[in-house]
Backbone:
């Protein structure tokens, strides 16, 4: 579950989740939902740190459900996530972790 890279991600974003089935599902869901981006997974024993390169990490509820093999509500993630890197937008269907520099770019894309 740990990625093998010799350099750290310069501007990481992503969740820090308590170890267990949700952390395992979130780690795999982040890889799926952020295809093409570098994803580092660091298992620290009691928690799992998930870091995505590129200043933005998207995580969909349905992808987590697929990994768990059961229904999942995003509030379960909030309870299992003692920390995160970056800023966060939460919703019932997805969570977005991002750097402040990506907040403006995202608004311009949707305008």
Residues:
């Amino acid at each position: 579950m740990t990625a093998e890279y010799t350099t750290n991600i310069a501007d990481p974003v992503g969740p820090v989740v308590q170890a267990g089935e949700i952390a395992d599902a979130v780690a795999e869901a982040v890889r799926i939902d952020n295809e093409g981006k570098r994803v580092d997974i660091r298992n620290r024993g009691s928690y799992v740190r998930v870091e995505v390169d590129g200043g933005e990490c998207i995580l969909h509820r349905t992808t987590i459900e697929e990994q768990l093999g059961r229904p999942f509500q995003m509030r379960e993630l909030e309870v299992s996530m003692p920390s995160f890197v970056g800023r966060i937008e939460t919703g019932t269907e997805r969570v977005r972790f991002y750097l402040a520099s990506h907040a403006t770019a995202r608004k311009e894309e949707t305008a």
About this structure: The chain has a mean pLDDT of 90.
